[in-house]
Specification:
The complex is a heterodimer. Chain A is 60% helix and 0% strand. Chain A is mainly α. The radius of gyration of chain A is 26 Å and the shape is elongated. Among the domains of chain B are: 165-333 and 342-383, no CATH class; 394-518 and 625-639, no CATH class; 520-620. In chain B, a hairpin with a 3-residue loop joins strand 3 and strand 4. The chains are: A mainly alpha, B alpha+beta.
């Protein structure tokens, strides 16, 4: 190996090793070394947030399809009621209350935080 | 410098292995710093592969024939552009390109998802590490581009058929597609390993999948055009195993892009979507295996190599591992919602999925049959074009109809009355077009006539969707038609980008049908001064000229062309005799009509010693629509890929809420 190739190779190897070890060099003795993991509560909240976004998006789509004429008045009236109910249900389930947290709520239950978190409704 | 290349690849292998092992251990034991370190290893692997690639590129440009790879794939006469393309013109170099793109994409995925999908990324890193380890291992142990030899005076040169401008872009484009499918696969597996059933993996990989799918589609079209202008057999797609190898993952990814919308809109098909991602990735690996193993005979494949067994083993590992993972996660993947009606948008997507997967598996059977027949009977039985053409019609025509129906049907369910109202215009247009084409003589191919009628149905439904949507948007917001149209597309880029892609597929279908069902061909040996009449052309062989090109002797027949009795200029068709490679290539003559999209295509089959030439001449109606469809396809994909601010806000709000909730 030529000297130049050796030098570049050594530099590359050292750089890579330092870069890989960087998290340990930066924090040699951290107070906490655990990865954040979504708990049951957060997973359930995510499911509900997805359900809410899905329902809102479906409602918007239905409204637009009705305006374009793709969905007839009859179909629209049949579909819009259950969809609105689903949106309301999903929003209710995500609504924060002042009640103590429920760490593992069941599928039909809402998710309740232990402090006020204003609901942010998707606008997409 | 070959030692530096080898060292960089060995370093890459070590880093990828570290990302795999340390990443998996960190994910399992939830160690934050170790997980971060594994992510850094993937980023560093990209740097190491980059250095190895620079070493090979430098050796190619310096004509360093002490590198076996350089000596086998270039020569001093080879133009610089093709010297660069020799990087992926051979087995080892193309594997290095695979690894470069893979580590590059992995590094980008890590960098882009560190904030938005941090917990998912923890499990994604070892999956990416596994794939990178395999490719780095192949390059270090089995097929190194840095093998050396005693430097020769000159190299063997590059295969003449690879000396075409399309080879500068077609293989890298295909690789972007093949390798790009690794990212959705890794995120899907990461989600399963992390027991995540939400849509985060889909959100995180939406653009990756679309990008890989676009690259694979464009790569195939570029390859088709290369075959059309360079290979010189008169066509653009021969159902060659390696061509099919690129088509299959594209079809699987197409099915996924449709079915993933059902998951996003209705929370259904979670298992199906994961299976499609696995299928697409495994087919991408299978394509790479086919090209490199030497098990099938193809103009596109590399020579026989020891890579085949390794690839087969890795594909088996991936299939077994991923399917086992899916099976263990089945209980948490079950959907809570059911399809409400068989007449709904989601139902049409499901039918489209079944047809696409059926077509994909049919092609897979055709590709695998020679291998299986050889394994069982000791004799390779090849499946030829009629098999593929038959199934293309069986599955392709219903797919065209579904492309027309899909946009007109609402989500959840649609009544027959509203369907009738939506279908009236597009179906009426299709019937009129069909009748007009019949009068014009298109009935000479009933399959062509039916397909064109369906194409008109699709274009009618797309046009109708744009018109209805723009009208509704204008009624809502006022303003001009143009503003309403722009707003319509801007508010739902994926949907309307998708419609543009559908229009591209229709253009492709029109071009394929026109040039295959309605083409004309004549073969004749002509002496100078003699003519050949074909369709509305008369082609007169004027003279044969010989000239020296940069690395080949060029023989060209000069042809005078008349169309409908009027001269439209001259055309050159002939052969190149490559000096270093000692090979001859066909150089076809093509005259395109920009108004009709028709080509006059002349092949110089054989140049005889007595001065006569055996010509094969085609007239291919509408063939140029195939290439134009590529531009429309790209436009549609870009529209769909373009980030939507409203969607970004919606997703940011969703995950911000959850972070707030977690902190509460």
């Amino acid at each position: 190996m030529s000297a130049l190739a050796f030098a570049i190779g050594a530099l590359l190897a050292v750089t890579c090793v330092v870069f890989v070890a960087l998290p340990f060099i930066r924090e040699p003795d951290p107070a906490e070394d655990r990865l954040d993991e979504p708990g049951a509560l957060e997973r359930r909240a995510l499911e509900l947030a997805e359900e809410r976004d899905r329902a809102l998006s479906a409602l918007k789509e239905l409204e637009f399809d009705h305006r374009t004429g793709k969905v007839s008045d009859k179909d629209y009236h049949e579909l819009v009621g259950p969809l609105r109910a689903r949106v309301a249900e999903a929003l209710r389930a995500l609504e924060p209350t002042a009640q103590p947290s429920v760490r593992d709520s069941g599928p039909g239950e809402g998710v309740r935080g232990n402090r006020e978190v204003p609901p942010r409704i998707a606008n997409g | 410098m070959p030692e530096l290349g080898r060292a960089a690849l060995a370093l890459c292998l070590g880093l990828a292995l570290y990302a795999l092992v340390a990443g998996a251990y960190a994910a399992k034991t939830r160690r934050r710093r170790l997980a971060r370190s594994a992510q850094n290893a993937l980023l560093a692997a990209f740097g190491a592969t980059g250095v190895a690639s620079i070493v090979l590129l430098a050796a190619l440009l310096r004509n360093d024939f002490s590198f076996t790879y350089v000596a086998e794939h270039t020569s001093r006469e080879l133009p610089t552009a093709y010297t660069i393309s020799a990087f992926w013109g051979g087995q080892e170099g193309s594997l290095l390109l695979w690894l470069l793109i893979l580590t590059g994409f992995s590094a980008a995925a890590v960098a882009l998802s560190r904030r938005t999908a941090a917990d998912l990324l923890t499990w994604v890193v070892p999956v990416l590490g596994l794939v990178a380890t395999f490719f780095a291992f192949m390059l270090v142990v089995v097929s190194s581009p840095f093998d050396t030899q005693l430097a020769t005076a000159d190299g063997a040169g590059l295969n003449p058929s690879l000396q075409n401008p399309y080879m500068m872009i077609h293989p890298p484009c295909l690789y972007l597609g093949y390798v790009g499918l690794t990212i959705p696969f890794a995120f899907a597996m990461g989600a399963l390993l992390a027991r995540r059933t939400d849509e985060l993996w889909i959100v995180a990989t939406r653009r990756w999948t679309l990008f890989a799918w676009t690259a694979l589609g464009i790569g195939q079209l570029l390859g088709s055009h290369w075959a059309y202008v360079e290979v010189g057999w008169g066509g653009y797609y021969a159902w060659d195993p390696v061509e099919n190898a690129a088509l299959m993952p594209w079809l699987a990814a197409t099915a996924f892009l449709h079915s993933v919308m059902i998951q996003e809109k209705r929370g259904m098909l979670k298992v199906w979507n994961v299976l499609l991602v696995i299928l697409a990735f495994c087919l991408a690996l299978f394509g790479t295996f086919l090209t490199r193993s030497g098990v099938v005979s193809s103009i596109h494949s590399f020579t026989q190599s020891p890579l085949g067994g390794w690839f087969l083993g890795f594909i088996t590992l991936i299939i077994a591992g991923s399917l086992a993972l899916v099976i263990t996660r089945l209980p948490i993947l079950r959907s809570k919602t059911r399809m409400e009606s068989l007449v709904s948008r989601e139902a049409t997507f499901l039918y489209n999925n079944l047809l696409l997967v059926a077509l994909c598996l049919t092609i897979l059977w055709g590709v695998a049959f020679p291998i299986l027949s050889e394994a069982v009977h000791g004799e390779q039985i090849t499946v030829s074009s009629p098999y593929y053409n038959f199934f293309l019609r069986v599955f392709g025509l219903p797919l065209l109809v579904l492309m027309a129906i899909g946009p007109l049907v609402a989500w959840r369910r649609a009544s027959l009355r509203s369907l009738g109202r939506s279908f009236a215009w597009p179906a009426g247009l299709a019937l009129v077009v069909g009748a007009v084409l019949l009068v014009l003589g298109a009935g000479s191919s009933w399959i062509g006539l039916v397909a064109y009628t369906f194409c008109a149905f699709v274009l009618g439904s797309i046009g109708y969707e744009f018109v209805r949507g723009t009208r509704a948007r204008r009624a809502l917001t006022g303003g001009s038609w143009v503003a309403a149209f722009v707003e319509l597309v801007g508010r739902n880029r994926r949907r309307y980008g998708g419609y543009i892609v559908h229009a591209a597929i229709v253009l492709l279908a029109i071009g394929i049908i026109g040039s295959s069902a309605y083409d004309t061909v004549r073969e004749r040996t002509l002496a100078p001064g003699q003519s050949l009449a074909i369709s509305h052309y008369v082609v007169k062989y004027d003279q044969l000229v010989r000239r020296n090109g940069p690395n080949a002797t060029e023989f060209r027949a000069i042809l005078d062309v008349k169309k409908n009795g009027s001269s439209v200029g001259t055309l050159e068709s002939g052969k190149n005799s490559y000096r270093a490679e000692d090979q001859v290539s066909n150089e076809v003559g093509i005259r395109s009509d920009p108004l009709t999209g028709e080509d006059l295509y002349v092949i110089t089959d054989q140049i005889n010693k007595n001065g006569t030439i055996a010509f094969k001449v085609f007239v291919k109606p509408l063939v140029n629509l195939i290439w134009i469809s590529g531009l429309v396809f790209l436009l549609g994909s870009l529209v769909a890929l373009w980030p939507s601010a409203a969607e970004q806000r919606r997703l940011a709000a969703r995950y911000h809420e959850l972070r707030a909730l977690a902190r509460a």
